[in-house]
Design a protein that fits this description.
The complex is a heterotrimer of chains A (168), B (453) and C (363). With 168 residues, chain A is α+β, with helices and mostly antiparallel strands. Chain A has 7 helices and 4 strands. In chain C, helix 2 (95-110) packs across helix 3 (126-134). Classes of the chains: A alpha+beta (168), B alpha/beta (453), C alpha+beta (363). At the A-B interface, helix 2, helix 4 and helix 5 of A face strand 4, strand 8, strand 12 and helix 15 of B.
């Protein structure tokens, strides 16, 4: 893999983010920048990407690895184009998250943590996302999908497939 | 009808935008505070109001503010804790999503009181669209002169930045949040020193919850004394409660802390009762960390009085016969729910969210989860229940931060109040896989039909 | 005229001592010594920022100070809590502390592999000492113990992540003694691990000190791996002229043979003078060193040249378990074992010693 580089607009955003923090405390910008990096470089953080972030922030690569592996939103392994992150904590469990997870496994023919062979979908279980009143729910990219039912799940899968097909 | 101080205008069309918010009287508290009051007077009003931290601990906000150190030449910071992640809690999200300017208004006034010229909102990373809403609102406020240099010509400078987290419940603990804000792993710090003396980048820092900071707006507008008249005792003002689980109307409600738990669950104005005519089995009244209560103890205190939705009444009876207000995450379980399984999901949550820094929490949370999974799947032993009790007892109070306690309490309370359900699981390994234990002697003392007014 | 320093009076387990303001409870207790000093698995006086994590040094504060005599509501980490004037602390005199400590030991051991028989740290392991002093005989943990993917971190240091108790000392060593930290704590919760993330050898100068500060056998000296048990070795104080460090070390010898080199540890097992990689890994000849004399080991330990101090001799229970009979031993391990033979230079064997090595020597 070649050295990853942010496109100019993203790089400008990164530089702007660094100014939010006092001089010499640029490390503070690491999480916001990792988000941008993850969005920009295929939905996950490769070693090369993390080394690049370390370089931008002028910190040790190890400091980036430590942080990236700590936070659950940072993917340090490749993921599918669409990541279904289904909440399984108490309130969602009460409202049937287990059935939703099982249904997704059956429909996509993958286990939790796996990616479909076409590289489209990854299924993850996550802990409380703060949408307990709208359970069961999952995060898909930037947004929450709430009050899930099997029908809704079907529609979401369909929607993703269509978007992927249109974008290709 | 309860007097609403925070959500009164939440449903107005366009209130998310600056123009409508301002037209409806927004930013008047900034005009009042910066125009007529000194920073210390703002703090005094907050003290008078009796406002208690809405994040979970319930510490008096005015007192917290007065602890901030003011060494010469060292900048101070206000950090808004929007890392809402406690299971059952989603009130801050609601507030930020619908009333972003209310939070920003509160932040400006509070920053003025504390002398913070750069204030951060630490938002949990998953709330990504909320971050856009906040940044848009900050941009609007800045364009209209409420943020920036020399606000209202009063010589007060302020910048507000949104800082996006990346998925870690522990960052809701204030010192872990500050570590995370410094770009590190979210490991809680060992106190002292407290953030008020050495916070972010070793500078004096105050960390307050979203709802707490939003509440500063009505306090300044109506005055601390007036605010303190609402509510009861030391539970002043209004409180946002997010409700979920087996209820007809899950959502976020603003209450004035004089309402009874029973009315809150069954009245149409709030939760609207339990669906499908089911009976109430148990409830976690303040977010997953606080003790679960069986229906009989939830609705009435040990003294036989009606339990109210406020700090004191929910805590009445201590940990043995009471619970806590916590973060206001109200989780209702009906007769079909299994307490063992529910406790298991919470134990799994705390194991997943432990930062791994100190040994009792790192090792103990995983151990409890494994034992609970055994009991839940019919592989438990009678001695496991006592073992669980012993593990939680040795985690509680012995960890660096309150996550250890938060992991221990739900397990302790579940065993304390529902021990027979645990024993039933052990004694009936096969049957427990097919049906739930049900209500037993924790039967709902109310007839749901009568209560649904 | 120098101002007279006001000392704080603190009482720990009913013994009063005066210490300078800013002293931690742990260090005050160490001044008293003996069992009054709480055990410490993560605190390390020469590493800035260490402590507070393992929770083994928890103590009860029965009175905060003369001015505020209220007890502290929770047990506190004595390594990170400073004394106040008039403070009253209970360590071994507190039931609460002893119970909590028992719990901590159990937590530290549930995922520990207990592979002491094949662990190079055995005999000088803080976790072993802690378990003997504060643990229970059995475990109540019935699940599979945690495992990790194995990582090779180079020719000098052997990493056994399963043994790690996450004290973070090695991270502080890399931060504070080497020019660039190449390892750290990855992941979180019960999966936290010490690793380099990318395949990398830890070779920076002074990194060898992670071996000495590691309280368990997670980081051991690869050049000493499986070469000998520490209690068979004789520790000697020695020095050499070194441009990089003080050159003051402990040699671990068997006869003339140098098996390993470590920094010198004080009575609390802490290194005051850290040593460079060259002294530790490259100077394995007696001729490289000026021998000062036998190392004095203060605390009772199996390393103490095989001479136990104040230790109760184990009772001969053979007749008891055999119902009064006293059977003849069929084999005396000391006579049969080849490992104790003086004519075999174990340090010359590349890697662990096998029976073949002895056979080869014999032929």
């Amino acid at each position: 893999m070649t050295h990853p580089i942010f496109p100019p607009d993203k790089l400008a955003k990164v530089m702007e983010l660094i100014t939010h923090y006092p001089e010499g405390k640029q490390k503070s910008a690491i999480l916001p920048i990792l988000h941008i990096a993850q969005d920009n470089f295929g939905g996950w953080l490769s070693t090369e990407t993390m080394d690049y972030v370390a370089e931008l922030l002028n910190i040790l690569p190890m400091e980036v690895y430590e942080v990236a592996t700590f936070y659950s939103m940072c993917n340090t392994k490749p993921v599918g184009k669409y990541v279904f992150e289904v909440c399984q904590t108490g309130p969602c469990m009460i409202n049937g998250s287990e059935e939703i997870i099982q249904y997704l496994k059956d429909t996509l023919h993958i286990e939790v943590g796996e990616t479909t062979s076409d590289g489209l979908f990854t299924l993850k279980t996550v802990e409380c996302l703060g949408a307990c009143g709208y359970a069961p729910m999952m995060q898909l990219g930037k947004f929450y999908r709430e009050h899930l039912t099997k029908e809704k799940v079907n529609a979401i899968i369909e929607e993703c497939r269509n978007t992927a097909a249109t974008n290709n | 009808m309860v007097r609403k101080l925070l959500l009164e205008k939440a449903h107005l069309e366009g209130i998310r935008g600056y123009d409508v918010y301002r037209r409806e009287g927004g930013y008047r508290s900034v005009e009042k505070a910066l125009g007529e009051m000194t920073p210390d007077q703002v703090t005094d009003e907050v003290k008078k109001s009796g406002l208690r931290g809405r994040g979970g601990a319930g510490f008096p906000t005015g007192m917290k503010w007065s602890f901030i150190a003011k060494p010469e030449g060292v900048p101070r910071h206000l950090v808004c804790n929007a890392d809402e992640s406690e299971p059952g809690t989603f009130k801050d999200r609601y507030l930020m999503e619908f009333l972003p300017h209310l939070l920003i208004e509160g932040l400006i006034v509070s920053s003025y009181a504390l002398g913070s010229h750069v204030t951060y909102i630490y938002v949990r990373g998953e709330y990504s669209w909320v971050i856009d809403i906040l940044e848009t609102a900050i941009g609007e406020a800045k364009a209209n002169g409420w943020i920036g240099n020399n606000i209202l010509g009063k010589g007060f400078d302020l910048e507000i930045y949104v800082h996006r987290g990346a998925g870690a419940y522990i960052c809701g603990e204030e010192t872990a949040l500050l570590e995370s804000l410094e770009g590190k792993r979210g490991l809680p710090r060992i106190k002292p020193p407290f953030p008020a003396v050495k916070g972010v980048w070793d500078r004096p820092t105050v960390v307050n919850n979203v709802e707490t900071l939003a509440a500063v707006v009505p306090i300044i507008l109506i005055g601390g004394e007036e605010y303190a008249k609402i509510g009861v005792g030391k539970s002043t003002g209004t409180k946002l409660i997010s409700t979920c689980g087996n209820i007809n109307k899950p959502g976020v409600y603003e209450i004035d802390m004089t309402i009874s738990v029973e009315d809150f669950i069954y009245s149409e104005e709030y939760c609207g009762g339990i669906p499908n005519g089911k009976k109430l089995k148990a409830c976690i009244p303040g977010g997953s960390s606080v003790p679960i209560l069986p229906a009989n103890l939830l609705l009435k205190t040990v003294k036989g009085e009606k339990r109210l939705m406020n700090y004191e009444s929910l805590a009445d009876g201590g940990f043995v016969k009471g619970s806590m207000m916590g973060s206001g995450g109200f989780i209702v379980l009906d007769e079909d729910q299994c307490v063992v399984k529910h406790t298991l999901t919470l134990a799994r949550f705390y194991r997943h969210e432990s930062c791994g820094q100190c040994s009792p929490c790192r090792e103990g949370t995983g151990w409890m989860e494994k034992i609970l999974r055994n009991i839940d799947t019919g592989k438990g032993k009678m001695s496991d229940i006592d073992l669980l009790w012993d593990i939680q007892r040795r985690i509680e109070g012995n960890t660096i931060c309150p996550l250890g306690d938060a992991a221990a309490w739900p397990v302790a309370a579940a065993i304390r109040h529902f021990r027979d359900e645990f024993e039933w699981h052990v004694l009936n390994p096969e049957e427990s896989q097919k049906r739930n234990y049900g209500l037993a002697h924790y039967a709902d003392p109310l007839e749901p039909a009568v209560a649904a007014v | 005229m120098a101002e007279e320093k006001k000392l704080f009076k603190v009482t720990i387990d009913n013994i009063a001592i005066e210490v300078e303001p800013g002293t931690s409870i742990l260090n005050a207790a160490r001044r008293i010594g003996g069992e009054v000093a709480p055990p410490a698995m993560c605190y390390y006086s020469t590493l800035k920022g260490s402590g507070g994590k393992c929770r083994t040094c928890l103590v009860e504060v029965a009175a905060g100070s003369t001015a505020d005599q209220r007890p502290m509501p929770k047990l506190v980490a004595s390594c990170r809590t400073n004394v106040m004037d008039g403070m009253i602390v209970k360590n071994v005199t507190s039931e609460k502390v002893l119970d909590a400590r028992k719990g901590i030991v159990e937590f530290l051991l549930i995922n520990h592999p207990l592979d002491c028989p094949i662990c190079d740290q055995a005999g000088e392991c803080s976790l072993q000492d802690l378990s003997y002093q504060h643990g229970t005989e059995g475990t109540r943990y019935e699940f599979k113990r945690r495992t990790f993917e194995k990582h090779d971190i180079g020719p000098y240091i052997q990493l056994h992540m399963t043994r790690c108790i996450l004290c973070y000392r090695c991270v502080y060593v890399a931060d504070q003694l080497t020019n660039r930290r190449e390892h750290g704590i990855l992941d979180r919760a019960d999966h936290s691990e010490i690793a380099t993330y990318i395949h990398k050898a830890l070779e920076n100068d002074f990194i060898g000190n992670v071996i000495d500060v590691c309280p368990v056998g997670a980081l051991t000296d690869k050049t000493f791996r499986f070469k000998n048990r520490v209690w068979f070795l004789k520790p000697l104080d020695a020095h050499r002229n070194c441009l990089k460090c003080s050159g003051k070390v402990t040699l671990w010898n068997r006869g003339e043979e140098v098996f390993r080199v470590t920094a010198r540890k004080d009575q609390w097992g802490e290194v005051k003078d850290f040593i460079c990689n060259e002294c530790r890994f490259e100077k394995k000849k007696t001729a490289d060193w000026v021998i000062e004399g036998p190392t004095r080991i203060d605390r009772h330990s199996v390393i103490s040249g095989n001479h136990y101090v104040d230790i109760v001799e184990p009772k001969e229970i053979m007749p008891e378990v055999m119902g009064g009979r006293n059977p003849k031993l069929l084999m005396d391990i000391n006579q049969v074992s080849e490992v104790n033979r003086k004519d075999i230079d174990l340090s010359e064997i590349p890697g662990p010693a096998h029976s073949e090595d002895f056979e080869k020597e014999n032929s």
